[in-house]
Amino acid sequence: xxxxxxxxxxxxxxxxxxxxxxxxxxxxxxxxxxxxxxxxxxxxxxxxxxxxxxxxxxxxxxxxxxxxxxxxxxxxxxxxxxxxxxxxxxxxxxxxxxxxxxxxxxxxxxxxxxxxxxxxxxxxxxxxxxxxxxxxxxxxxxxxxxxx
Length: 148
Fold this sequence. Notes:
This protein has 148 residues and is α+β, with helices and mostly antiparallel strands. It has one domain: Alpha-Beta Plaits (2-Layer Sandwich), CATH 3.30.70.1290. The protein has four helices and six strands, in the order βββαββααβα. The strands form two sheets. It has a four-stranded antiparallel β-sheet, with helices on both faces. A two-stranded antiparallel ribbon has the order 1-2.
């Protein structure tokens, strides 16, 4: 019997999940609870447009973790580039004064990223790891995302 964790497509049955990490430019510690909440929204909306799902999201002051389920037709490098571009543009627009305290560059993220397939661990283990980040949102429960 097939697991319910698989997604059925027209010509495929799949379960593709990746762990992605973005680091802020110069590793500046500029992410706070409000920005992390906004990033959560941006990533969810952007992934939805790609037909993907944000399974889990969390971050610390200088990096974020995303656990993403995606379709085999999605070119992962293009998806990641789009996530970085859209989030950088919208965060700089919404929090420009805050971001400029840390640096004046146009990019929010470094040019690189980390991505790993979740083949070696379960999605639950990855979710627990991502949830266990030392997030500024944990210090301010009033600012927690509605997606929690």
